[in-house]
Amino acid sequence: MSAQLFLDGVHRSFDGFKAINNLTLSVDKGDLRAVIGPNGAGKTTMMDIITGKTRPDGGEVLWNMSTDLTRLDEAAVANLGIGRKFQKPTVFETHSVEDNIRLALKAPRGVFATLFHRSDKAEEARVTALLDQIRLTHLRTEDAANLSHGQKQWLEIGMLLAQEPDLLLVDEPAAGMTDAETMETAELLKSIAGQRTVIVVEHDMDFVRALDCRVTVLHQGSVLAEGSLDHVSARDDVIEVYLGR
Ligand SMILES: Nc1ncnc2c1ncn2[C@@H]1O[C@H](COP(=O)(O)OP(=O)(O)OP(=O)(O)O)[C@@H](O)[C@H]1O
């Protein structure tokens, strides 16, 4: 097997409730994967387990089929090149867009440093390339505080990219975005995949459709269905868990 990330029989209960129940999931290097599922399906808990925030009661989470992430803490997981973007954007509001990226370039993985350093040419080229990728070149000298919600999300994605993650976990990026921002975010994540692996948890089906990628449906802590969005959304069991019939 060649999966970059392989969850094997993972369990986690909270007060007897099985939030993650024998979850097995495999993602290859460079994949773009959407994870969907009704409220309480275990999506956030799954991300928490991958990133070392929550320890499972059992099972393994293998990185490159060798390192069991469940034995590591959050900092060690981040250090392996696994970056996480939470739903709420966290950028340095009183710094310019380009300085936010510069700070992230200097920081150790998983921690944004708080000191500025002198920039060199290579670093400036990287800042320029990242700003271009996240579509914020025209706003590079603007304070981050003045960005729209969607632009702040892109900036934070850019800050994570500055840290060269191999795997990017993104939690509901489209929440609160305009329709145009939502579609641009899908394009951005598609442009990141291939070089990096991207796993996106999302509720917005227009966004998931725009991602045009393999979809995993979680339900009661395990995988209910997997395949294209058309494939999974045509299944009676998926329709049932979404519509509660
Ligand atoms: N720290 C915790 N303590 C107790 N129960 C928890 C904890 N974390 C999660 N749960 C429970 O586990 C279940 C799965 O929650 P989780 O947040 O992973 O679902 P989700 O699929 O991300 O849902 P949503 O789409 O609403 O964010 C829920 O019933 C939740 O209440």
From TrEMBL:
MF GO annotations: ATP binding; ATP hydrolysis activity
Pfam families assigned to the protein according to its UniProt record, in alphabetical order: ABC_tran
Signal peptide positions (record): none
GO CC terms, sorted: plasma membrane
Transport keyword on record: yes
Top-level taxon of the source organism: Bacteria
Limits of the ABC transporter domain: 5-245
InterPro entries attached to this UniProt entry: AAA+_ATPase, ABC_AA/LPS_Transport, ABC_transporter-like_ATP-bd, ABC_transptr_urea_ATP-bd_UrtD, P-loop_NTPase
CDD domains membership: ABC_Mj1267_LivG_branched (cd03219)
Keywords: ATP-binding, Nucleotide-binding, Transport
Keyword Transmembrane helix belongs to the record: no
NCBIfam families linked to this entry: urea_trans_UrtD
UniProt protein name: Urea ABC transporter ATP-binding protein UrtD
Lineage: Bacteria, Pseudomonadati, Pseudomonadota, Alphaproteobacteria, Rhodobacterales
Gene: urtD
